[in-house]
Design brief:
10 helices; 4-stranded antiparallel sheet; about 25% helix; 4 domains; GMP Synthetase, Chain A, domain 3; about 400 residues; 12 strands; single chain; 5-stranded antiparallel sheet; alpha+beta; extended
Length: about 400
């Protein structure tokens, strides 16, 4: 989804609204919710819901109550209640769909305890808000220098100014407990604002900063993923992925969230597939499972003393052999249950380029070169013949 100013230009390149997160239609922002109830009217005896969802920097959202009955729509910039002073945010959702979002986030659906929306932001409020946001990059750099000077083992990943510029929130990640009491004093004296330190996890840090994953697309956590479920190494084992930490870890350093996307499908397919540690006992010897194709439902077994010779067996045949072994019956050999592969006698090789010559890209020889070569050959023949005549004489 994108606003009209984010459409492509004449040359196909994206224009970009360049509003730095303050898009008027809120259509090009991450984690945007489409209001599918906007065109539906309420029953006559029901009052509109006064709860409003407001978005702040990096997709941070909170719920507020519109106690002043302001005429609000998606994309309006509003001044909201804060612990001290006020904050500036963008309205992302209004009406009955706010109830659904509050229920989804396990929030109380009553609006009594919600903070208030003071007013629609004036031009003065917007100017102050944009001024303090423009200073965030420089202050983040300066704050990292102060933390390094104090020798603290922490990483300040992002900062966020309150809309009125009275408070600054520093988001940091750390593997151990950090004593930042002196750091807060230095920040307060250096930046002349109230300071709040908020520790976030490595996944939350990646979601706030964003980036491009190994799949070539924008990170799921920064675009549409709203909750972080635990990801275990067993998810990679079930999907027969190599347990390589460099490939399984995302930009946050933890296991990729996408390992859980197809896990249920693999678990359903593995229900009737025998485990790889179950051996098949035959009269010829004991066979061990070396490989499993989950979705084609094939297994490859090999005898213990003949590890290089694998036999392709279907899942049904493997379960049949296992059932016989449980009854104490041995089958004669695995060769009885091998699945034969039928190779079609059609074209084994097909030239997709259309030409077989390896020199098809070479430049053809010109006619003048051919004539010159023929003259040289004729001259060499005559010279050789004259030498033979002289010798005979």
């Amino acid at each position: 989804m994108g606003c009209t100013s984010c459409s492509s230009g004449a040359d196909g390149q994206p224009k970009g609204c360049k509003n730095n997160g303050t898009c008027g239609s809120d259509g090009c922002n991450k984690l945007t919710v489409f209001d599918w109830l906007s065109n539906m009217s309420l029953p006559g005896d029901q009052k509109p819901f006064i709860g409003v969802e407001v978005r702040f920097k990096n997709g941070r959202k909170h719920f507020y109550k519109n106690s002043e009955n302001l005429s609000l729509s998606i994309g309006d910039i509003v001044a909201t209640e804060a612990m001290s002073g006020h904050d500036i945010g963008i309205v992302t959702l209004t009406g009955e769909l706010v109830k659904v979002q509050m229920k989804k986030k396990s929030h109380d659906e009553t609006t009594d305890d919600l903070p208030k929306i003071y007013r629609k932001a004036t031009q003065k409020d917007i100017d102050i808000w944009q001024t303090v946001r423009a200073k965030e990059a420089e202050i983040q750099k300066r704050s990292r220098e102060i933390a390094i000077h104090l020798g603290l083992k922490m990483k300040i990943s992002d900062i966020e100014y309150q809309g009125d510029g009275s408070k600054t929130t520093f988001y940091y990640t750390a593997e151990e407990r950090v004593d930042f009491r002196q750091l807060i004093r230095d920040f307060a004296s250096a930046f002349s604002t109230r300071v709040e330190m908020k520790q976030v996890g490595f996944r939350q840090e990646a979601a706030r900063l964003g980036g491009i994953g190994s799949c070539g697309r924008e990170l799921c956590c920064s675009t549409w993923l709203t909750d972080f479920r635990s990801v275990k190494t067993s998810a990679a084992r079930y999907q027969q992925l190599s347990l390589n930490p460099q490939k399984l870890a995302g930009q946050c350093g933890k296991l990729k969230c996408c390992l859980n996307y197809e896990l249920d499908t693999y678990l359903d397919a593995l229900k009737d597939i025998p485990k790889s540690d179950i051996k098949l006992i035959t009269e010829k010897g004991t066979a061990i499972c070396h490989k499993t194709d989950i979705f084609k439902r094939f297994l490859w077994y090999g005898y213990e003393k003949q590890g290089m010779n694998w036999h392709k067996i279907s899942v049904d045949n493997a379960n049949e052999v296992i059932a016989l072994n449980k009854k104490g019956i041995k089958v004669s050999s695995l060769e009885e249950f091998v699945v034969e592969e039928h190779i079609s006698e059609t074209k084994i090789f097909e030239n997709v380029v259309g030409q077989d010559s390896l020199t098809r890209f070479d430049k053809p020889k010109s006619k003048n070169n051919r004539k010159r070569n023929n003259k040289n050959k004729a001259r060499n023949k005559n010279t050789h013949r004259n030498k033979k005549i002289k010798k005979n004489v």
